[in-house]
UniProtKB/TrEMBL annotation:
Species this protein is from: Acinetobacter haemolyticus ATCC 19194
EC numbers for this chain: 2.7.7.58
Name listed for the protein in its UniProt record: Putative (2,3-dihydroxybenzoyl)adenylate synthase
Taxon lineage: Bacteria, Pseudomonadati, Pseudomonadota, Gammaproteobacteria, Moraxellales
Enzyme class: transferase
A GO term, aspect molecular function: nucleotidyltransferase activity
Amino acid sequence: IQPKLLIGSRQHEVFRNNHFIDALHEHCLAPEIVLMLNHQPTDFSLIEWIETAATSVVDIAPTPADEVAFFQLSGGSTGAPKLIPRTHNDYDYSVRASAEICSLSSATRLLCALPAPHNFMLSSPGALGVLHAGGCVVMAPNPEPLNCFALIQQHQVNMASLVPSAVIMWLEKAPQYQSQIQSLALLQVGGASFPESLARQVPKVLGCQLQQVFGMAEGLVNYTRLDDTDEQVFTTQGRPISPDDEIKIVDDQYREVPEGEVGMLATRGPYTFCGYYQSPEHNRQVFDQDGYYYSGDLVQRTPDGNLCVVGRIKDQINRGGEKIASEEVEELMLLHPDVVHAALVAISDEKFGEKSCAFIVSRAPELKAVMLRRHLMELGIAQYKLPDQIQFIESLPLTAVGKVDKKQLRTILNTSITS
């Protein structure tokens, strides 16, 4: 087994001796990574280590490819998070295939401004994909625009990955800081629904190419391709990584819907997991007898095979039998020039079962609920989809990965109703 990593000290004499490289090659040890430490003790013999390393690792069994590498957490934005076992095999495939789709290379310099352990930032293609390609990952503490713009300029970052809420902040600040983001060539957006109106602003305002990403920690990942048309990039969330990814779109009776109609997403494939850890009851609910996983997403498929994400099943509001897709209404509200963020959640109602409440972050204090309803009506929205309540709020609560935390919004709503 050939070592991949060599850790040594800059203070040790052997690293100032040209013979050490020759010794490595003589003993067939050519590590891919050399990690140099500044304060490592110098009382060891690297030459001795080189002479014994080959035999000391020979009996170490390699990790089976189908063994669990780590657990990830499901999003938890609409329910309790669950543990997702990911194997070396499936995750390695996802990383490598993603890196190829995104044309990563040693010249790629990725800004990591989202939590690194989450699937989007870790492997889609994320930090692992960039490191696999030999590129550079620049870490940022958060996606705050001014901090990120400075890092982009300092490190000549050419790729970044954001959730929609962060993109909105970047679009607001970018016109004043164009000189700092000139190196940015590709912006990936994923993690939540990205309205077409915002998607079209990315190349105009940020001056870079947009790539939409729709994936899940459970496996399936979709990308718009770098050579897709503008319409495909602005209006869809891409198509699967692998030709072996299988997708069904079904109705509430689990019958496949006609092409182009909205339904529930079901998938199975080479890198999609086989079940949540120690959750047999939940697994019975989300897997069918053929091994298809039902993600809870509402999607439709275009004739060219791209997916359009309409929303989440649990994020639908059932108002007296009329189904309201929250994301559809949210996207229309965002078209108002004074609306920065918008979220629609359900309210319990004795007569209708559920009604809707919109939480709005506005850049104009004079914006009123009646003005927003008038805006929606002018866009032709159905009467039953108009928000029954509208609350203005300073900021929307977010989960750790930057998605709108609708559980917290419902808590806020229930608290205000109770009080």
